[in-house]
């Protein structure tokens, strides 16, 4: 479906797309049918913007006065894969090697590091910070101003919430997820809570207080079960599961993860 | 990206959109790229229909016989903000000052009051009633025939369900959420359950029986903790949090909320 | 909005859509505005592909080398209803009478039987198997390689997960849902767990071990309450609710469900 230029270094902009002449597109960028790329957008070399995506969407002030609206830049690095029906706001900054699923929304002011992956239907609110090589699975909700450090995992339907007594203005603060932590599917992390370095949150848990580093918590409300290093694969083998980077290396560039034999 | 007419009172219909000549669009309506607006649609003055939206989507009978299908009207008031990739069905009625996020779906027969906001990826099933100035956050699921009164709050991933013994036809009845109530993130309200006036449901709760007015419930299943007026902000101050309208006024027009010093 | 051919047996391809000349479309297929249908797609007679859908989306290898990418076939049977903003990958196989909501994603290698319905925003990962006449409601998450047998029900926000100790590569296995089973809203089924024939999972449950046939389980973690045949409609009548096919017959063709008077 996508028009192919005969010179591989040329950009391949589908004729049905709507790309502002003021947008900055790098070499070899491929833009699919019906994608919209606004003037405030820059996209690095070798990136894909698939069909029906909307890049550089306006913030709320646009609707108050479209003519006076001056959108913040939306900067996307090299080798991005932005799948169909995705919405990236103005004021979003994303480093290289980004990849996301379909129907994702990322709001203004959010900063995303290198090599991050965000799953289908995830919803990242404004001014979140997501560190290098972090992975969010499908339909993850990230509240405004959450801090998600590098090399963490948030599994499907995880929720980071920011308001302990909603609705309020004065109490809100997003959670912090420290490096190497893993949060299981459908778990919720309360406002201002910190999930420690290498900690593990079991699926369908409700975490209302800080989790110490390298510990496993489970339940509603979540309670400490013990060190995450004690978890073994129950499917017939007894290998320790955490830290996960000892055995799970798929998709990380060389040098990003610690040596498998390193201490946690 | 959006074509700007030189006369500000003109409509601004993006040339790539597909707008039926029989649709009724008010003054200053702005329609984005690749939006589809069917013949049965009317949209009030000063409204926005953003890119990739589908307004006036057909109900199931269309697929049985497209030629015989006679769509019900889809009526949207003034100053609506309908963001990208939203689907509004025929037979939907929405009053003025509506605002919604991306990827929202609203099914036929649903009636929505003035000043309502519905968050990204929310899914409102058929024949729901949503009162004035109510706010649904991201990814809220509203079962068919739910009743959500004015000035209520449903936080991210809240679910209102309508079938106590699914699948069935004879037992189904949506919940009722009374005025000023607040339902915390990822909580589920059972069929036919009533959340009382000013009541508060804590996050990740499962509410299987009625909640009295002005009470706080929490848990799976949810139990009464005490009066919502006893909740204080735990972040260092001891101000009462509920009723929320005493301290949270952002975005409401003058006169909509009670005076902050009024009784609950 | 959709162009109507005067001869009813003609295809009706909206002029704004992007349909590959190599795609195979059956008789009377109707394609809406801004739909994308790739070359590897075949769609049976009498099917609908609504606006902004993407059919035959490429798998990950496409992004590594678009020119070398050879997409697997995406085969869709007769009388399909594929609603707006849906994404079906290459390598998906779907039999006749399929129907799905909006914003659905179905990944490569998934096989879907006859008469299946999948609700709005559901996300079916790769290589899942979904049997005839099974129904998934809104926003269901189906992990890779899950097995969902014929005539089952998964209600809104159900999650089937595949990794007991995420992230891992070696332990992953999807759940199995046996014929006539019903899984309540927002429940999660753990990896490798089997929900038995005719079993019922209550809403907001976490199922970590196998559920015997025709039993009801509820809770976090889920525990056996008793035979599903003992459940009665609590709304004033005392009729048994399960097996559901004794009283709920809506939408099934004649002969698909057992006779209402048959043994479970």
Description:
The structure is a homotrimer of 264-residue chains. The first copy, chain A, has 264 residues and is mostly beta strands. The first copy, chain A, is 2% helix and 27% strand. Chain A has one helix and 31 strands. Chain A has one helix spanning 61-64, and strands spanning 12-13, 18-19, 24-25, 30-31, 36-37, 41-43, 48-49, 54-57, 74-76, 81-82, 87-89, 93-94, 99-100, 105-106, 111-112, 117-118, 123-124, 129-130, 135-136, 141-142, 147-148, 153-154, 159-160, 176-177, 182-183, 188-189, 194-195, 200-201, 206-207, 215-218, 223-227. In chain A, strands 1-4-7-10-13-16-19-22-25-28-30-31 form a twelve-stranded mixed beta sheet, with no helix packed on it. A ten-stranded parallel beta sheet of chain A has the order 2-5-8-11-14-17-20-23-26-29, with no helix packed on it. In chain A, β30 and β31 form a beta hairpin. The model of chain A is unreliable at 1-8 (pLDDT under 50). Chains in contact: A-B, A-C, B-C. The A-C interface holds A 1-2, 4, 8, 14, 16, 30, 32-34, 48, 50-52, 81, 83-85, 101-103, 120-121, 135, 138-139, 153, 155-157, 182, 184-186, 203-204, 220, 231, 233-235, 237, 241-242, 244, 247-248, 250 and C 16, 18, 20, 34, 36-39, 52, 54, 57, 63, 66-67, 85, 87, 103, 105, 121, 123, 139, 141, 157, 159, 161, 163-171, 173, 186, 188, 190, 192, 206, 220.
